[in-house]
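Subgroup meeting minutes
Present: P.N., E.W., G.H.
Scribe: E.W.

1. P.N. recapped why we're keeping a running log of single-chain structure predictions: easier to compare across weeks, and new members can see raw inputs and outputs side by side.
2. G.H. added today's entry (507 aa).
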Amino acid sequence: MIGRRPQGTSSQPQQARTGASKARKGEDWGSVTGPRIDDNARRRLDAGRTFVNELSALSPLDGRYARDTRALTPIFSEWGLMRARLQAEIAWLVGLSEEPGVAELPPFTAHARGRLETFLADFDNEAASAIKTIEAKTNHDVKAIEYYLRDFMNHHEDLKAASEFVHFALTSEDVNNVAYALMAQTGRDKVLLPALDAIITALDELACATASVSMLARTHGQPASPTTVGKEIRVFVARLSRARGEIQAVPLPAKMNGAVGNYNAHYAAYPAIDWPIVSARVLAGLGLSQNPHTTQIEPHDGLAELCHAVARANTILIDLARDLWGYISLGYFRQKTREGEVGSSTMPHKVNPIDFENAEGNLGLANALLDHLAAKLPISRFQRDLSDSTVLRNVGSAFGYALLAYRACARGLSKLSIDEARVRADLDCHIEVLTEAVQTVMRRYGLAGGYEELKGLSRGRELTAEVLRDFIARLSLPPEARAALEHLSPATYVGNAPAQAQTRPRS
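Output recorded in log:
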């Protein structure tokens, strides 16, 4: 039977033993009111699974890059979607039992509720296969979840009487929108943000370590006023920290209000119950907020906002990857090598910045999907069309490409070492960057035409330190101002860059 173990095994004692073992280990299985996807869920998904060989997988996320993206598998896979749907169904059922107005469904005993929690916690490949078998007959994925849960309950006396209240007054989208909200929230909080945090931490450490390493800046690709390596890295720390906060702050609302969002069936069955309150309470128990005004579907504005927030962070990372690629090309950073690694099939000397190149490519793929999700999902004809359904299944892919890029970027950062001699040598070759300081001091003391004179002296031609010193020596400046300019060098003309590099952004 559906949901039952093979003959000859005892389902109830086994569940009891399993639950007790898990409790002893202090593992958080995720109750119906506080779901968590952890390593145990991942192991249950992997158990007995035939992995797609990387040579035959259609998507590189499931093939070549499966190792880098597998943290998302138990969340966004079909298995993960099934589990999240089952979670939503159980949460609604338990919520109904706690509503005094639903007299026909008394509160579950502690034992019965524990059985439901264990049923969810033990969701595995066998359970997913059973649901797929039902779906083959129903041709409806959410109805298959409902039948699977009902069948389980009908085989346990302490749950059997409540089986008719499974999926009570709900439409499929009530289950789906909750499931996707849970999946997006878990993927964000448990996988994406920690991966982004690893990059921010690595950049913060690099900024502090190179805070006083003076560097030639480049505006329009041309030599510009000096800065420090650490300050330029600190800019990315600040940008990413802000973007991270925006990702974290996006609320993911959900709804459980029936076929067109009006609780029609709910009030038909129980007119005296305040159904919006019941719905809000169930959603809050799942860690979600309620959207009180919807059609048949929750309009996905929150998910679209999350996609945009992640895409903005990704755009910053593309900027970072390109800058680091450029600094490696200039020789400012060297990359640590690994024994046996090859950089080119023909040029033995090469150490390519492949991590930042891979990051840039996958960030682009992630943003293409995220932008489409954000543009498509909030649009639905009248009270509902189904075009969002197939698109929603790609949220995991968007997160997957982002995660792949984050991991590549973190690997690239771990390989970097600053070549201070190369950075200083490049800086010392460009004495002309001091002309900004000279003409600005001239303006202070009322010496007209300083900008134009220095432009004629330096624009499009090589300016030497001797020529600049001679120019300064002829200026009618106070002795202390002239001395300060004469002692100025490209390495010391960095403003407050070292202090900025050491200043962490406010949380």
